[in-house]
């Protein structure tokens, strides 16, 4: 995982895991992160308590996406004031995206400057995503067909947001 993070074209200041239910305070995922913390650059801080889960969600797997989105509202909290920090949010299972979206929302509401999501699948493949710093919508890699240069474009384009970001490639 350290290698996966090292291969990103972007260095986070904090690594925050998607929090577990209060009843699952400690799990293998957090242990992995704690262990991995020694392998990151010194200026990357693993903040295991960067997000907290304050609400048990019953029967989450039985719910449809709309019910899940409703159930997840207010489930997470962050005691940190992030002061514009760059945060890599790590999820170990990517389900509907509702959980990670809510985590991104809470982090941004607490002052995070930029949040990207990395999902650690069983095979440790990496899915990097980027959240628009201007409007918090997700961004997608797009290609300028004239110059062939890749860039991040906001998914709110063109109606809500015209922000673009350098993709670093
Ligand atoms: Zn935007």
From TrEMBL:
From the Swiss-Prot or TrEMBL record, what is one GO molecular function term? Answer: transferase activity
**Which UniProt keywords are given for this protein, alphabetically ordered?**
Transferase
Q: Which Gene3D superfamilies match?
A: 3.40.50.2020
Does the keyword section mention Protein biosynthesis?
no
Superkingdom classification of source: Bacteria
Q: What family is this protein classified in? A: Belongs to the ComF/GntX family.
The protein, known as: Phosphoribosyl transferase domain-containing protein
Organism of derivation: Enhydrobacter aerosaccus
């Amino acid at each position: 995982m350290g290698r996966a993070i090292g291969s990103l074209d972007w260095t986070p200041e904090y690594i925050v895991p998607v929090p577990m239910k209060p009843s699952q305070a400690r799990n293998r995922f957090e242990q992995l992160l704690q262990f991995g913390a020694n392998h990151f650059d010194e200026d990357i801080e693993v903040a295991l308590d960067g997000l907290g889960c304050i609400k048990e969600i019953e029967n989450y797997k039985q719910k449809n996406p709309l019910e899940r989105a409703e159930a997840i509202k207010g489930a997470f909290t962050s005691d940190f004031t992030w002061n514009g920090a760059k945060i890599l949010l790590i999820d170990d299972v990517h389900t509907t995206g509702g959980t990670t979206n809510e985590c991104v929302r809470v982090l941004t509401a607490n002052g995070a400057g930029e949040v990207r999501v990395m999902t650690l699948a069983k095979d440790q493949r990496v899915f990097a995503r980027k959240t628009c710093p201007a409007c918090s919508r997700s961004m997608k890699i797009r290609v300028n067909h004239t110059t062939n240069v890749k860039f991040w474009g906001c998914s709110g384009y063109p109606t809500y947001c015209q922000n673009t970001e350098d993709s670093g490639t």
